[in-house]
């Protein structure tokens, strides 16, 4: 379609993308940048690593990894502890991550909901979204109890062993669920972890029916979590919230009463972002 705004010269290219932007071949990939991002992501998941450890575990040469780290250090994305001879994620990474969180009102609108949920239950309240086959934790309001769960913003946790993760999986359409499970590695973290795909699917069916999920010591022994999904304006699952704490406080007899608070909080947050909660199956 010709546009009068470009003098009838044919369709305009989308601003911000060059011609052929949909070409995914190697000519559109900066290999050195891609390698640098691999090192950056590796360090973000394994903080406090020596150069030789990073290079060895990634299968890269120490000289290459060192050049990457020094470059990232210059941007404040990583930092070097000269005394311990270890590399860590730098403060600039937090600044960039905080800018990502400001893209959406979800985190801002979730804070008062999480605060009320923590006060009502006495347990730590969490907010997370899906990233591939993991949950990315975006926000948390901690309980004042001495023993508590801790998932700082930016933490990634496998979906199959997470209360929020299973709440998300349970409310995905079948095509999306199949794609996630195809790439998921069902690692066993405890004796309670669901590592069989069929057993996991059966649990997801139960979750869809009752509306909330339970992480019953599936990621960490002695910790229990109750989670519920948050939906967008199209009634599609977009995030999840939860309460988590030690099994000494969240006993099985506490799951039912706590789940009521979790479901109410999820409903409130869904409404706060203009979402629609679909009827349960």
UniProtKB/TrEMBL annotation:
DNA-binding is among the record's keywords: yes
Tell me which residues make up the HTH iclR-type domain: 30-91
Q: Which GO terms describe its molecular function?
A: DNA binding; DNA-binding transcription factor activity
Entry-linked SUPFAM superfamilies:
GAF domain-like, Winged helix' DNA-binding domain
Entries under Pfam families matching the protein: HTH_IclR, IclR_C
Query: According to the UniProt record, where is the region Disordered?
Result: 1-27
Q: Which GO terms describe its biological process?
A: negative regulation of DNA-templated transcription
UniProt cross-references to InterPro entries, sorted A to Z = GAF-like_dom_sf, HTH_MetabolicPath_Reg, TransRegBhcR, Tscrpt_reg_IclR_C, Tscrpt_reg_IclR_N, WH-like_DNA-bd_sf, WH_DNA-bd_sf
List residues of the IclR-ED domain.
92-275
> Which UniProt keywords are given for this protein, alphabetically ordered?
DNA-binding, Transcription, Transcription regulation
Query: Can the keyword Metal-binding be found in this entry's annotation?
Result: no
Which PANTHER family would you find in this protein's record? HELIX-TURN-HELIX TRANSCRIPTIONAL REGULATOR, ICLR FAMILY (PTHR30136), HTH-TYPE TRANSCRIPTIONAL REPRESSOR ALLR (PTHR30136:SF24)
Quote the protein name from its UniProt record.
Transcriptional regulator, IclR family
Upper classification of the organism:
Bacteria, Pseudomonadati, Pseudomonadota, Alphaproteobacteria, Rhodobacterales
